[in-house]
Prior knowledge:
By secondary structure, the chain is mainly beta. It has three helices and 53 strands.
Amino acid sequence: MGSCLLSVLTGLILMQIQQNSECYKIEVSPHPGTTVVFRRKGGQDLDCTACRGVGSSVTCQNSDLKLDESVLTTVNFNCSQPADVFNVEVTQNIECFETRCKNIAIHPDSTRFLDFTRTFIWDVKVPLSNTVQLDFPAPAIRQIKPSEYCPNNHTYTIISYRAGRTSIGTFCMNGTISRIQVLYRGRVSLEVQKGTDLNPSDFKVSVGPESKMLVEVDSKLPRGESFEDFFTPEYTKGFLRDDQIKWNFAVEPSHNFSVKYLHKTEPECQTGDVSIEYLFEDKSVLTKTLKDDPPANKNGDFSMTLANCQPKTGLALNFEVSVFRGGTPKLCKVDLQNEEGLSLQVEKKNPMSYCEMKMNSLVQEKTVIHVGSKVELSFLDCSAEDLMLMATKTIVLDCPRGPPCDVRSTDLTIPAPVSCLPALHQFTWLLRVPEGSIDLSSLQGNLHQSVPEKECNQVTFLVSEIGGSNIGQFCSDGEGTIQKIQIKGNASITAMPKGAQGLSQEKRPLLKAILNPEFSENVVYSVSPLVMGSTYLPTPNWPDGMMPSTSVTWTVLVPSDYRAEIVFTNVSQPKCASGHTVVKIQSADSHEFQFWTEDQTFPSMVIQQQSFYLNMSNCEPKSGRFAVLSKIILQRETRKFLGIILAVVGILLLLLIVVLIVVCVIRKKKKPRANRSSIFMPRGRSNLPGNATFPKTRADNESHIYASIEDQPVVDVNSGHWGNGHQVDTYRPYTGPTDSIPAVKESSPEYTLDRGDGRSEDQDTYQPFLNPTSTFMPARPRTPLISVSSLRFEDRRMAQNELNTFKSTGDINPIRLSTDESRFQPQLDSDSDSFHEPEYDETQ
């Protein structure tokens, strides 16, 4: 029993010792070709040891612990803070052949050994006559003194092993050195302080060209003013080899450089001298010693080659290459002391351009000239395309003596440009109203809001609520429909040109702002739609959504002869966390309205017969956005228009009827009586004074020959015409047959003749005349039945006859035959005188 208790106590003591010996444990698995060494710091506590393995296979060492097998190994430390005693070195061997290198994945896990100060080492070997080429992409590296530390706790050291170990230099990240070539064999080490995450430069290892230089450094100097330091190898101890070191410098165009020796230690030479050779871009060569002044104020790329002698003592050189802009800058003085509320900002549009801008002798990428300041600017190698000028003017719309006061307005005008400044690309007015709202209108016509369907192609105004969202982009368009915009509270208006001319030529006022009382909506538009075409009404901040819990109203004026068709062409609805989105349409002259919320479907079209209000308000969205694009099309009112047309046509018809009646009355009153001749027709056998029609030519007819005259003819002595209007040449006695003359029926006192060519189907039979009331034309007054022998008888148709037997010597008034009489008119040949067919009246 005692032995058992002794065994238990012994086990507990061994367990306690094992626990004390395992204060810190870490598992390590080296990559192939990689060696991990826990290297003890000099002068540290020897009681802290590093052990490898577990159980009975544990081996402990008081010196360095080296692990080079690619297996998982447990490392135990018998102290709680092994990072104070040990550093970790991770070494990787890279062997390069003529064209490529092996094992180029050189960066280990950044989270390993975080509690230790770590040194990552890459040993690179290339063919004997080649160089190890190390490329450092942006941001590249810069050289420092060996005693300095890098700001990010990442310090690079480059070593050459050609005929001995030579430290090329110590480097930090963010510099100008983009490439280093080391002859034959080189080492790159990166030291990272404990507690710092590994963030190495992503440098590349490759086989470089053949060279006689121990080391060759490529540096790309930055544009603008800069100062870069460079050191010779083994700068602290001195360079003791008779090798050559070369620096290649790339200088930006329009820049000059100067070389300055900051510190130098000339060696004691056994043979030869120290020389420095400068090769410039124009292929010229300049050779100097360390006692000579280096080149200054040169331009273009150059190289500097330092050749050491066979020294007894070391050579050390620290030199500086400074770069500055060449050429003569353009000076510009800007004084804003007399410009109330105006500030300017000048910035480079292209950061890669060679333009250098200074304000008060300080190089700046962006220059801000504050309100009321006076500065001096300079521009070097700056074209109009390199710079952009923006201006901001703050205007306070307020009652100077407090409310109530008259409405205050201001014209938004661009101040006269400063000649030495670039073209103005943007001008912003900050309108501030302590109380009230802003009415914004154009001085050059109505405003048009730019939408994808119809964009602005001239000066554009970006209107925004200060502290809110953009309302929209507007322009003064010839087809603009917005008479004014009312904005609740402060507003920002930014003018931007179309094209590269800028705003400097805009000298007249562009907009007008008026202070008005405050209203409930955020934005109110006064719209006069286009008569021809479509008028688009986008919500504020289109196509993005309206701000939460905001509203907008359009006051739309519809002409009296039109109706408005409202179409919602594009609608985006959110999911509301609280409240609802509402679209409301209300007539201007009534309280009737229609409205829709986010859970309702919009109609395809809404028709308004008169002016109306269109109001939209947003909720507090949970997701999504509220954005609506509306379109208004005006159409003429067809009913009203038809009524107007019918009324006008009716009035015209009524006027036409009245005119016709008046013309008929006047015509009847003033109508000249037709030329008439009275023919006495006795009872019994009588003969009509001719057929109803005549042949076309007198040469073929005997219309001018009469067989006999039973009664005394009535002739006009002046004209030589018979009373029936026929022309008379000479009298010849009738020699033709007389038996064919039909007898005149005495049953009816009226006779008719057929119309046409004067030949009826029974052309030898006489028919009575139709009563004038049975013809197409209305009845006309009949010829008075007055005896031809009466002194009161007047036959006006005989006025042209030469054998005129009228008793009266008064003026004869010829009367044109009426339409009814013309049907009896004979057809004459072309050389005969035209005459009217006589009207035969009943005689006693």
